[in-house]
Queue: 4 jobs
Job 1
Amino acid sequence: MAKPLLITAFEPFPGVPDNPTETLLRSFAQMDDDVLSTARHVILPTRYDVAPARMLEALNFEASAVIMTGYSNRATALTLESRSTSASLPDRPDSAGYCPLPSDAPIAVHDTRLDLGSMVAALTAEGLDAEISDDAGSYVCNHVYHAALSGPCHSDGIPGLFVHIPALPGTPLAETAAGTMSLKDMQKGMGIIARMVIAN
């Protein structure tokens, strides 16, 4: 049997006590969608020292492609991240209170090999807000993505993509977020994205 798609989300972290990615991921199990409901679902701790390793462990042994999701208070759409970097934020602690030590090493950059333009076109054709970003930030989200793109998803490796999502309407996060999107639209969008990732 072919290995399934891996989809990851994050647990709460400072400033985000109820992570919408966890809500979204948990909803897939109840959906009538043969891709999203049967994918391997992994919720990662928002920790620099744990999340990348947990993702790689699941990816290396239980998946043939990966979609990683994260919440961004700047997102106004399904935001497809085109690249990752080795940069970190030494002044923003993770859920365990840890901050990476500053480094003088050159910043490494890795790009996803997926055709994000086609994905955005497919999403917008269905009436969904979507955009491409070339900055995944420097928090744990970026670290997880960098672990994928510099490892199993590098070059001609397996497909990998990070998607930042907005807040869910009616939640406390929505009061300060740049944008919101309904759970239904997020589910629909992730179904489109998942099928296009698998097709690569």
Job 2
Amino acid sequence: MYKKKCFYNQSLKNLNTFAIDVKAKQIVFVKTINNLIKISKKCKLYNIPYIILGEASNILFLKNYIGVVIFNRIKGIQITEQKNSWLIHVFSGEKWHNLVKLTLNLGIFGLENLALIPGRIGSAAIQNIGAYGLEFKDICEYVEILSLKNYKTIKIQKKFCQFSYRNSIFKSKYNHKYAVIKVGIKISKNWKPIIFSSLNNYIKKKNITAYQIFNIICQIRKNKLPDPKKTGNAGSFFKNPIVTKKKSQQLLSLYKNIPNCPQKNGLVKISAGWLIENYQFHNIQIGDASIYQKQKLILINKKNATSQDIITLARIIHSCILKKFHISLEPEIDFIGSFGKIYSSKFFNLKT
């Protein structure tokens, strides 16, 4: 069906950071929008399901995928200088961390807090990635998507993207039969460092530079997060739960050192990693799936874990946290079954 860079029944083990050994009917790497359209049309013609991925760094394959897995490698970066800012137009197949490094090298400062986050640009918009006091929504100008129904492009301005914590309109209304193809990122020339509370122990200088923040964050992430090239993982498995102020006060009255962060809407974000760590799971392991000791929010594939091993471990954690703290942890990663994405509510009792 496809002649270039197409493999039949090839394992996806080396193409997903969880290193789950599942297969797809076909695997295709696309480098242009026209190629993406062409493959989408052929899949429609032969009634073959397909899914578009970037780095597959925030997913868990549950079973062999019966259709075509398309890996987005559409690249290109254009930088426009404005009076008070920089406007960066980036195609969705670019690696996020490479963009952070490029802007730093060009003397454009503002993305350094998001250093070393895995994945591609398209996923950054869909997921509204964030770390150390900065989220994608804070620097987004627009997101351009391609309809895989009529193959027209739609440019969506930031205010209509419905960004929230690890969420966006691209996970709902524009999820099925749409593909993110480009984003616009706006960075002010008036750079001010963002020193998030968890960086206070690392940053002592008053005149800190963007380069120093970048290096510090890279070192922190390397020290506390497993390298997916060595240990299978998809980063944080669960989101940090956001609870009511009343619930947070109840928790703080019982656990005074629980990390928390008030939100603009009056709610409070609680550290999921702290909840898991303070439940004190004792070397719990299901098959080759276990909790990463340096960062308890990460579940790892030690060697040959199956997706069922990962799910079983996650459900045990979810159940225990719910029972002790009365908080329902919500998975941050996406689940992909034989025909496509599966809602996490199928596996977890997601109480609000």
Job 3
Amino acid sequence: MKQLWLLGGAMALIGSALPAGAVSVYSNDFEHVSTTGFTGAGSIVAAPSGQHLLGPLANGGTATLTLNTAGLTSVTLSYDLYAIMTVDGDGPFGGNSVANPDSFVVGVVGGPGLLNNSFANFAGDTQNYPVVGSPDQSGASAINTLGYGNSGDATYGFSQTFAVHGATTQISFTSNTNQGTGDEFYGLDNVRATGVAAIGGTVPEPASWAMMLAGFGLIGGVMRRRAGTVSVAA
């Protein structure tokens, strides 16, 4: 029994040094009509289908999400981006071009960029998502599900992982359209963030180290005894 106790103690100490699993940091589908965590541009919008989203994001407006990232080493951010009505991507319509696109930009404030792409709904326009020169609505996971007329709507799903280095992390979501929201805008939905915790726990006490080493010694001793008792039939 003592041998099992030592072995169990050693394995428990080893297990306590493993990284913690992913933890939920933020989740909002906006159906509860709350913009908690967000500041700046955007409010709750009800689409013609009845679905709620954060919008309308247009004309350089930026919505900023603040996350509690204390004790985390990285965060995975996922969200649905809606391109709504006559977003014109890289043109040529709507006064848009590669130099003046209807783009959407996501980035960590003071950190890396996560997304900088143009999207188009209007037939004949191109977009640079997923690649430069793509036809309108290329790569969309769903089309015309929100009930908008005037070229409809397209849904794009994204998931991006980045390192964090502080107690709070801010994510900016910026819409670069050049027409009024009666013509075109972007929206956000199903925003979620999960984090990976830093390796936790304190350095073991000397007595704990002794117990762990004894456990390793026990494992080695058992293996040696077993090896010494193997016999071969004549």
Job 4
Amino acid sequence: MNVLLKSATIVNSSDKKYHLKKRDILIKNGVIASIGTKIDSPSNTKEIKLKNLHISIGWFDSSVNFGEPGYEERETIANGLLTASKSGFTDIILNPSSTPVPDSSSDIVFLKNAAQNKGVNLHPLGCLTNSAKGDSLAELFDMQNSGAVGFYDNKKAITNPNLLKIALQYTDSFEGLVYSFPLDTRIAGKGQVNEGAVSTRLGLKGIPALAEELQIVRDLLVLEYAGGKLHIPTISTANSVKLIAEAKKKGLNVTCSVAIHNLIFSDDVLQDFNTNYKVLPPLRTSKDIRALIKGVKDGVIDFITSDHTPINIENKKVEFDNADYGTIGLENAFGILNQMFGLEKTIILLTKGRDRYGITTPLLKEGEKACFTLFNPDETFKPKIEDSISTSKNSAYIEKEHKGKVYGVIVNNNILF
């Protein structure tokens, strides 16, 4: 594949030579052959000229759910990766949310094989415990050798602190990454939404912030004792940010993420009982949103994720109490973040994080493999559900103004527009 990108504005704050400069970029057989102010198109080369074309290294999402195997009606791996590519992502971390769950090396091999030749790089997480039941550790070392980049019982809390301690101590020997979902289920009970004035007014059972924060306090104490690498996915409260900031100051090896929807929606949007806003952790208060945004800007929160979770209509168009948790979000990530943080900060947020998982960060320089996202940062629009590529249409972002449209990606010697 030979491609010439014409007049592309490069967004790459780590390289001042090209940052925010317009350049032509010649790609030969998937490798960056030349970057220059004007490059003539060689023969047998596809020339790409696009309105207000900007490029960066390929984007990365640390929390994505599909359905295959088991829930193919929600999202297959093939269509999920297509959705990721059209959304600008060249690398995604796949949560273990299928059925059966991936808790063995053969399961990880299946996921890796299913993603071959699909363009986007899929990096699977394996379950921390057998069948994600929380009783005994799964074959963590074998899964990592087969390509797992971390271990997580998706959206399930580790109720046994001794199990977390053993997992951290064991994985420390091979630098494995342990996830712990921040939810004390005994405090959360049968809660559905944030506990507060809105839940009381609507008559919905609440999940108090304490349920998240109590679990984080416990997990950080275990980490301090056991050592190892801990990741706390999708935090949602102001105090969670404070607790993790304090842990980092102490030198603990901990990272955390936040879902985009927890940065823009408060629990006030639940007034109409729209189940697309039913997510886990739940939407919190405006005060929490302010603290989360500050945590992102200060670097306490390491990653922003779409937490893309396709749910078929039968499990969303039901009474609020009976609806499944989750919203899709891959297609909305750039337009929302660019609106919130501006272009340069957004690209930093969308490209950071690979090193935590042992994934090589692509470089935008001659002689390197081309791994680009192509986009127009200035186009504004409101998405329509019928335009979504995702099989499931459970989106919380419909009619939310976006700034910035993605053209596609160039990755693994493929053009995916």
